[in-house]
Amino acid sequence: MLVDILRHGEVERPGRFYGSTDVALSDRGVWQMEAATRGGAWDTIYSSPLQRCAGFARRLSERSGLPLTLDSRLAEIGFGAWEGRSAEEIMVSEPGVLEGYWTDPSAHAPEDAEPVSSLYRRVVEAITEITGARQEGHLLLITHGGVIRSLLAWTLRMPLSALLQIEVAEGATSRIRIPASGRPSLVFHDGGALC
After folding, report:
1. How confident is the model at residue 180 (pLDDT cuts 50, 70, 90)?
2. What letter would DSSP give residue 11?
3. What percent of the chain lies above the pLDDT cut of 70?
């Protein structure tokens, strides 16, 4: 089974921590997702229910005739006290805290945030259930950076402390292969533009 994973495109008012905050895509974000899905051939679409993923997923489903399932386990991590704030604002109000998070997000979560371990558990539960119900196929998951990092960490057996070492730009795509038995493998990861 192949699983293609697409991160949502740019959102309105970009450059802020939008985890559980439900923000819409910008026009550029829609364009990024259109470009990323052009020519794709999937059997089924799964998406986060947040509108920056689900809105595009619904349009793609209608256009392609593919079934769509919204799964709350594919939603982004909740950033708690950092929701809606920019990195610059956090660096001014909480010096040194953001640097700790970037070094090891599993040990330096924002106040009232969802723990990285919780994100990881729900994402692994989701992919296991989604792929366990099928023996073959080509799926598209439309989701968020934190979810994608968790899926890649699971595939590559990376520690959660290294999650932010995986770059996932807006509209980036990845593909993992999940065999009927054995370990999944990373086919490719397009982390996004270098500049």
Report:
1. confident
2. B
3. 98
- Residues 162, 112: Cα–Cα separation, whole Å: 21
CA gap 22, 44 in Å, rounded: 24
> Any idea where the domains of the chain sit in the sequence?
2-190
* Cβ atoms 18, 195 nearer than 8 A: no
59 three-state secondary structure: helix
Rounded to an integer, what is the distance from CA 64 to the centroid of its chain? Answer: 22
* Token representation of residue 192: 């996004």
Q: Looking at the DSSP assignment, which residues form a beta bridge with residue 174?
A: 5, 189
Are 17 and 84 in contact, with CB atoms under 8 Å apart?
yes
The pLDDT value recorded for residue 108 is: 93
pLDDT at 99 over 50: yes
- Rounded Cα distance, 112 and 110, in Å: 6
Cβ atoms within 10 Å of 97's Cβ, excluding its own = 16
Measure the CA–CA gap between 180 and 96, rounded to whole angstroms: 45
The fold adopted by the segment(s) 2-190 is Rossmann fold (3.40.50)
